[in-house]
Amino acid sequence: MRRSPQPLLQRAWRPLVFAAALPLLASCGGKAKEAEAPALPTPVEAARVAAPNAAGTVSGTGTLERRREMALSFRIAGVLTRMTVEAGDSVRAGQVIATIDPANLDARQQQTSADLERARRDVERDKALFEKGYVSRQRLDDRQSALKSAQAAYSSASFDRRWAQLVSPASGVVLARAVQTGEVVQPGQVVARVADLNSPLVLRLPLAARDAARVRVGDTAQVKVEDLGGQSLDGTVTRVGEAADTRTGAVTVEIELAGRPDLRSGQIASAQLSVRAAASAGNGFARIPAEAVLEAAGARAFVLRLDGGVARRTAVAFGGFDGDDALVSGLADGAQVITAGAGFVSDGEKVRVVDPAKLAEGR
To answer: Predicted confidence band at 52 (pLDDT cuts at 50, 70, 90)?
Structure first.
């Protein structure tokens, strides 16, 4: 029996059809694999949670000064007739720095001296008359009161006369000269500033009140002066201000440095202090950046905690906001919470922590 040629023809075309379909299948398979490629984890920034009682650091920038720096001025007004120093000059204790015209003071001292002599004569005369009964006791008492007044006026004039010369109260260096010869200076007007070189060099550091509350006398500090090329110096906190500046609200912290002849008063320096936990983070609360809090209601809040590269929505106890920080409890010491990018991440989503500084450098 003869076979039909139709099936044979079909069998011959099958390999050709399959071969022609291979490129199409390969193309479709590539697109499928491309569509199934997993998305990259969402980039976020994170902050590490410190234990409530953990130590930390506080930093700031301030000005170097000698602990004993004096603004010298005259007690009385007058014309400046002599100035013997310039900025940078060394001075010794008791050295005359400036002089004002003493003519007016001399005249006043002579007048009060004459008044004192006359008052003494009046007392002596009335005392003899009182003993003879020619004047009353009241008259003699008035004379004696007038004598005391004349003595006080003379002492005041003599004291002012001594202030016609301005002397240095300590050995040191002149930091600044503020007036010139021939100027009329007023009482209390600064003529020169003198630093006592025997007093220690200190860094006066203005800090926010909440940071100053964490600083204690005896805390250590690392101080860097720009003029020293970033060299780090050891310092110790010796004073913490009790009052805040009325304009800035800052509290001044004083850090004492070891003697360095290459440092000068007025230089700018930065310091990093090792301090204890903030007092405001008491009652078991730790500080985290405020942007890490997703939502807060009453004493409860939510954050996104990092768990092996996965964001986990976590409930925490909420103690309120303190400046740029939030006070929370319920997170383990060293745990990481998402800060920047938290609003774009869902619970259970994979994330990767990035360094913003490195991203900026990459730009």
So the answer is: low
Residue 185 CB contacts under 8 Å (≥ 6 apart), including other chains? 73, 74, 77, 78, 79, 80, 100, 179, 191
Element at 48 (helix H, strand E): strand 46-48
Distance between CA 185 and CA 191 in Å, rounded?
A: 8
pLDDT for 192-221, tens place per residue? 999 988 888 888 888 888 778 778 888 888
* 113-163 pLDDT, tens digit each: 999 999 999 999 998 888 888 889 999 899 999 999 999 999 988 888 888
Alpha carbons 325 and 312: distance in angstroms, whole number: 21
Cα–Cα dist 7/243, whole Å: 105
pLDDT score at 111 = 93
Rounded Cα–Cα distance for residues 273 and 236 (Å)? 9
Q: CA 248 to CA 337: how far, in whole Å? A: 32
DSSP SS3 for 1: coil
Contact 252, 241 (CB under 8 A): yes
Q: Is the dihedral of CA 165, 166, 167, 169 positive or negative?
A: positive
Nearby residues of 66 by Cβ (< 8 Å), 6 or more positions away: 172, 195, 196, 197, 199, 200, 201, 202, 265
- The residue among 189 and 258 whose pLDDT is bigger is 189
Burial 121-145 (b: 16+ CB within 10 A, else e): ebbeebeeebeeeebeeeebeebee
How far is CA 56 from each of CA 173, 292, 328, rounded to the nearest angstrom?
A: 38, 19, 17
- Which residue type does 252 have? T
Quote the CA–CA distance of 253 and 236 in Å, as a whole number: 10
Beta carbons of 267 and 225 less than 8 angstroms apart: yes
Nearest Cα neighbor of 250 from 206, 216, 215 is 206
CA 334 – CA 68 distance, rounded (Å): 45
Asked if pLDDT for residue 22 goes beyond 60, the answer is no
Instruction: Say which residue the tokens 């906001």 belong to.
Output: 321
**Rounded to 5, what percent of the chain is helix, strand, coil?**
30, 35, 35
